[in-house]
């Protein structure tokens, strides 16, 4: 069942990436992220009340996740604003490779033959997509690429940390407690950042424009995170496979980037995308 939840999370995550790209086009990053964290907190607010604060021994771990995720989001939002969606999605999808390596060494996970085949095929697809990005003129030293790479590293660390938080054999925290409180901490941190860094300098930076897509970022993200954490909370879930499937969201964001946003060099990236889709099928068959 956990792999079905992972696929559902991937679909919603693709919508999240797409609405994020639409919202950030010629728009200020910090207020968009602020609205995102505030709305996520509102959505999860019933669980804030139901789960309660508990002890600081628990909350300090959730606060750590908030710092990791927010760091990844800030860098990722900046990269998303300045790079094509059909490049950001695939490069972002290299995150599961790092999670995969970490899962083997930190959690002693073991994959079967079909899962290994799916992972290797996905790695090849991600590398080909990275080469496509270079061909578009975005070299490794490009500052937006650096932001994207940092977002990937922080996101991979967050994925491994989720396994530590939710696994019954580790901390075994309740998933809605983690979701609701880490959203709350992020909203607090973003409020401080907006008040002291963005608002005083708003006239000298990119102006903020409200768009219909901004609340959709939060709605799709909350749905994706709910299914993702429900998958990870199951005892037999493999974080390496869940993370790889979840990054299949690139299929959704790629399609939107190609057909709605009319981005370039789509044909050259199509083979890489088909290869990634084949890897998702192998992972599904190997996990069923």
How would you describe what is shown here?
The chain is mostly helical and 288 residues long. The protein has one domain (2-287). Helices cover 78% and strands 0% of the residues. It is built from 12 helices and no strands. Helix 1 crosses helix 10 and helix 5 (95-107) packs parallel to helix 7. It starts with a helix and ends with a helix. The model has no long low-confidence stretch (mean pLDDT 81).
In a nutshell, what does this entry contain?
This protein is an all-alpha fold and 288 residues long.
- The radius of gyration is 18 Å
Distance between the termini: 8 Å
Low-confidence stretches: none
- Number of contiguous helices: 12
Query: How many E strands?
Result: 0
List the domain count as a whole number: 1
Biggest beta sheet attributes: none
Shape designation:
globular
Mean pLDDT equals 81
The succession of helices and strands, N to C, reads HHHHHHHHHHHH
Which structural class fits the helix and strand makeup? mainly alpha
Beta content comes to under 5%
Overall helicity? over 70%
Helices and strands in order:
Elements: H1 2-24, H2 29-51, H3 56-82, H4 85-92, H5 95-107, H6 113-135, H7 143-166, H8 175-198, H9 213-232, H10 239-246, H11 250-259, H12 266-287
Helix pairs in contact: 1-9, 1-10, 1-11, 2-8, 2-9, 3-7, 3-8, 4-11, 5-7, 5-10, 6-12, 11-12
Keyphrases for this structure?
single chain; 288 residues; 12 helices; 0% strand
């Amino acid at each position: 069942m956990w792999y079905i939840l992972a696929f559902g999370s991937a679909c919603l995550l693709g919508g999240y990436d797409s609405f994020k790209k639409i919202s950030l086009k010629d728009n200020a990053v910090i207020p968009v992220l602020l609205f995102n964290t505030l709305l996520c907190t509102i959505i999860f607010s019933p669980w804030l009340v139901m789960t309660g604060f508990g002890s600081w021994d628990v909350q300090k771990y959730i606060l750590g996740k908030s710092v990791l995720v927010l760091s990844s989001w800030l860098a990722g939002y900046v990269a998303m604003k300045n790079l094509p969606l059909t490049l950001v999605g695939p490069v972002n999808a290299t995150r599961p490779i790092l999670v995969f390596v970490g899962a083997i060494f930190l959690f002693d996970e073991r994959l079967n033959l079909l899962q290994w085949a799916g992972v290797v095929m996905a790695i090849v697809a991600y590398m080909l997509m990275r080469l496509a990005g270079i061909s578009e003129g975005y070299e490794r030293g490009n500052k937006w690429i650096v932001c994207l790479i940092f977002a990937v590293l922080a996101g991979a660390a967050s994925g491994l940390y989720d396994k530590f938080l939710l696994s019954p054999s580790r901390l075994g925290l309740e998933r809605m407690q983690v979701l609701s409180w880490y959203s709350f901490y992020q909203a607090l941190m973003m409020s401080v950042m907006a008040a002291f860094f963005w608002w005083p300098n708003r006239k000298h930076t990119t102006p903020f424009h409200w768009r219909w897509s901004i609340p959709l970022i939060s709605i799709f993200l909350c749905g994706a995170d709910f299914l993702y954490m429900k998958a990870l909370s199951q005892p037999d879930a493999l974080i390496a496979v869940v993370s790889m499937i979840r990054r299949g969201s690139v299929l959704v964001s790629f399609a939107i980037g190609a057909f709605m946003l009319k981005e370039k060099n789509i044909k050259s990236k199509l083979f890489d995308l088909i290869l990634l889709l084949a890897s998702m099928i192998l992972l599904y068959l190997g996990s069923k």
